[in-house]
Every structure is written in C-alpha cells, then in structure tokens.
C-alpha cells in the first residue's frame, strides 16, 4: 500500500482483517496524508497541518466506521466571509441575504427576491459562472464567489465546471451550517491518531520516510497506489494540473478572528481564507492561537498537490494516463491522487472500503482486480 492516508489505511485495514499481510509505505514522516494533525508545541493547539479537514457524511456505515477508531465530537462548520468591507455568514443564507441587501425579508420574500436577481434564462448551467448567476444573481456572485474562485482556481469562473459550486447550498432560513450532512464531527485527538488506530493491526507494517519506486511493483503480490496517477509513470506524458496551497503560519495571543474559517471574497485580497485552528476543537481551551493565511497557486513538481483542476486539457491527458494504467499489472490506483478527483474524506473512505472488498472478491474468484478505486473519467 503506497501512501498512509485515508485510502491506504482503510484498504490496508480491510485486507489485514481478511488475513493478508500488508505493508504501508509513505514518503512522509507521518501517517494520515493531508489530514495529518499535530500539536503546536508552543500553544498546544491541534493544527490541521495541510489545511482544515471537517468530517461530514450521510453514510451511516462510514460514520460508524470512523467512530470505531476514534471518539468524534460533534462539530458544526460555520464559515464567515469578509467581502466588500463587511463580514457575512456563509453559506449564503437568509442572514447573508438580508445583511447584504440591508433588508428584513422573510424566507418566502427572500426566495422571490433572489429569483428576481437570478438569471432565469440559464436553464442548464455548465460553467461555474452560469451556475452562480442562475443560483443567486450577479451581486452575490461578485461578492462571494467570483474573486474567491479566481484566487482558488487561478482561472476565470467561466471556464470552471458548475459542479464546483454545487458543493455549496443556498438557504432561505437562518441555518448557517456549511454542510447539510446528517453526521458531522471532529476526531477528538485529531486525524493522525484516527489513522494510526486504523493502521494498528498485527498484519500491518508501516514504513515511513520511504519512497516507493514504480519499478519495484514486481516485488509485491499487489500494489495499491494512492500517490498521483501521473507520478506513478514519472509524469512521462506530462503533468496533470493541480492547485497547491501555501499556508503562512502566524500566532496570536488570544482569539484572532472568533471563528475557525474566515473566507476573503475580494479579488484584491491575495489570500482565500484564514483558519484559526483552535476553533476546530472548541472543547479545548488555549490562550495562544495558531493561524494559517491560505493562498492557492499552480502546483509545481516539488509542491504538494491539493485540488485536481480537471479542465478540458487535463481530462485529455488524464485519458492518456488511464490508458497507461490499463497496461500495468498488479496495481490498483486509489484515492484523491490516484484517481485525480476532488474527494471529501467520507467518500474517500467509502471508495477505499468498496475497493478493498472488490479486490478481495477478485482474489478469491476469477474476476479481475480493480484498476481504480473509482473510474477517473
Ligand atoms: N467558493 C467561493 N467562495 C467561498 C467559498 C467557496 O467562491 O467563500 C467556491 C470556490 O470555487 C470553491 C468552491 O466554492 O472552490 C467549493 O468550496 P468549498 O468550501 O467546498 O471548498 P474546499 O473547502 O474544498 O476548498
């Protein structure tokens, strides 16, 4: 198993429980991939080292699965946005709408008002911009989405797919829960202890600070690769485009912003958001504070890949790598990087469990082993 993130841990655990010996290799000095958490030695604050991760799902089996390995504390993600000189509540809800337009509308009035702002001629939005204009109209789009999205993705929202915006709800009540899932929470001691517990099985060996070379595939019965798909092939067909994030860390004595996540919607503010890590664990008490000022940029060869860009050119290259993957033997490409998809943690775990079961089924029958945890295209 190459990679000790969620995919690696969950597949490794499932196969270990089925009686296989599993070696989990990771080039980093810690498990948990990008959901790694670590205590800041000065303040004691639990830091989401690679940016904020909030667990949310509707999938009861996945919720039960993670709760097997860690206690989860209920957590409601309440995001704010600073834009055009004011602070607003996200996702766009009745409070946002009333505050933004200086009105006192009731839900039905706000719904009718937003419908009058929205562009009803857009019936089948394909791009992010069309989706936003059809959803909330130009004013809210400009204030909350346009600048943020340009900064986050490095391109104009007219070339981005509508699916990115469909992640966010618009509400005509005062519910400011960023997610609409039944189960939401944070692992009490962070994600790294959670993943450590998943990997804690007598048939699992973890090797950190270890780089896996694709030429070594033949030394193993089977390899699950959760690194980047193009990286497996040495990027010999070109590099799949990702956005990377830079976190400028700073500390504050006290409470800097009063919430965990403050987005910045204005295009002329370079950062997309500031996260104040102690607010991700409101059950803890810390005087000092650790914050990340987050900016996005194109991912270079030595940067950490975060968000797959998946525009037309990337999808064409992706098709070439999928074809290359079909030529490999005894390798399954898994997870966010292995399938080049924008994945939430619960979906990652669901796909990892399904992939492990499919592989186990193939192992005990004549069916072929899965090539991907989920088809990338
Ligand atoms: N987005 C935005 N303004 C915001 C928050 C999000 O325009 O204040 C857009 C942006 O394009 C982002 C997408 O909505 O990539 C999805 O947002 P989400 O908060 O789910 O992003 P993540 O936390 O995964 O980066």
Structural overview:
This protein has 377 residues and is α+β, with helices and mostly antiparallel strands. Helix content is 31%, strand content 19%. The protein is built from eleven helices and 16 strands. It has helices at residues 6-17, 60-69, 94-101, 107-117, 128-135, 138-153, 191-199, 229-232, 312-326, 335-338, 345-363, and strands at 22-25, 37-39, 46-48, 55-57, 72-74, 80-83, 86-89, 183-187, 204-207, 223-225, 242-253, 261-264, 273-276, 288-298, 307-308, 331-333. A seven-stranded mixed β-sheet has the order 7-6-12-13-14-11-15. A three-stranded antiparallel β-sheet has the order 4-8-5. Strands 1-9 form a two-stranded parallel ribbon. A hairpin with an 8-residue loop joins strand 12 (261-264) and strand 13. Helix 1 packs parallel to helix 7 and helix 1 (6-17) runs parallel beside helix 11. The longest helix has 19 residues, at 345-363. The radius of gyration is 22 Å and the shape is globular. The protein starts with 5 loop residues before the first helix and ends in a 14-residue tail after the last helix. The mean pLDDT is 97. Residues 81, 90, 144-145, 148-149, 152, 164-165, 167-168, 263, 265 line the site of uridine-5'-diphosphate (UDP).
Short synopsis of the structure:
It contains eleven helices and 16 strands.
What portion of the residues fall into strands of 2 or more residues? 15-25%
Cα-atom Rg, whole angstroms? 22 Å
| Morphology | globular
Across the major sheet, the strand order is 7-6-12-13-14-11-15
Mean pLDDT: 97
Structural class: alpha+beta
Alpha carbon gap, first and last residue: 23 Å
Could you tell me the number of beta strands? 16
What is the oligomeric state here? single chain
- Main sheet? 7 strands, mixed
Q: Which residue ranges are poorly predicted, with pLDDT under 50 across at least 5 consecutive positions?
A: none
Discrete helix count: 11
């Amino acid at each position: 198993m190459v990679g000790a993130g969620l995919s690696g841990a969950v597949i490794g655990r499932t196969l270990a429980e089925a009686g296989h010996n599993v070696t989990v290799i990771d080039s980093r000095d810690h498990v948990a991939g990008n959901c790694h958490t670590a205590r800041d030695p000065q303040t004691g604050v639990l830091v989401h080292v690679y940016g904020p991760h909030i667990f949310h799902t509707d999938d009861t089996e996945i919720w039960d699965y993670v709760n097997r390995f860690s206690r989860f504390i209920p957590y409601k993600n309440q995001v704010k946005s600073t834009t055009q000189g004011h602070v607003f509540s996200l996702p766009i809800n009745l409070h946002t709408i009333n505050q933004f337009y200086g009105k006192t509308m009731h839900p039905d009035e706000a719904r009718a008002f937003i419908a009058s702002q929205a562009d009803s001629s857009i019936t089948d939005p394909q791009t992010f911009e069309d989706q936003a204009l059809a959803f909330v109209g130009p004013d809210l789009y400009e204030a909350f989405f346009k600048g943020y999205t340009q900064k986050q993705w490095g391109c104009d929202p007219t070339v981005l797919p509508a699916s990115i915006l469909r992640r966010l709800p618009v509400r005509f009540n005062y519910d400011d829960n960023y997610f609409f899932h039944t189960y939401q929470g944070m692992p009490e001691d962070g994600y790294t202890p959670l993943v450590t517990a998943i990997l804690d099985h007598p048939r699992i060996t973890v090797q950190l600070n270890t780089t896996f070379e694709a030429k070594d595939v033949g030394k193993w019965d089977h390899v699950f690769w959760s690194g980047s798909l193009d990286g497996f092939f040495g990027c010999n067909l070109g590099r799949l485009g990702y956005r990377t994030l830079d976190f400028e860390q700073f500390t504050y004595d006290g409470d800097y912003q009063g919430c965990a996540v403050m987005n910045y919607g204005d295009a002329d503010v370079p950062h997309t958001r500031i996260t104040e890590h102690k607010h991700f664990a409101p059950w803890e008490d810390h005087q000092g504070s650790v914050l990340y000022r987050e900016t996005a940029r194109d991912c270079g060869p030595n940067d950490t890949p975060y968000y797959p860009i998946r525009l037309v050119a990337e999808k064409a290259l992706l098709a070439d790598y999928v074809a290359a993957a079909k030529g490999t033997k005894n390798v399954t490409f898994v997870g966010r990087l292995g399938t080049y998809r924008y994945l939430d943690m619960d979906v990652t775990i669901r796909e990892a469990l399904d992939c492990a079961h499919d592989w186990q089924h193939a192992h005990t029958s004549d069916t072929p082993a899965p090539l991907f945890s989920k088809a990338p295209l």
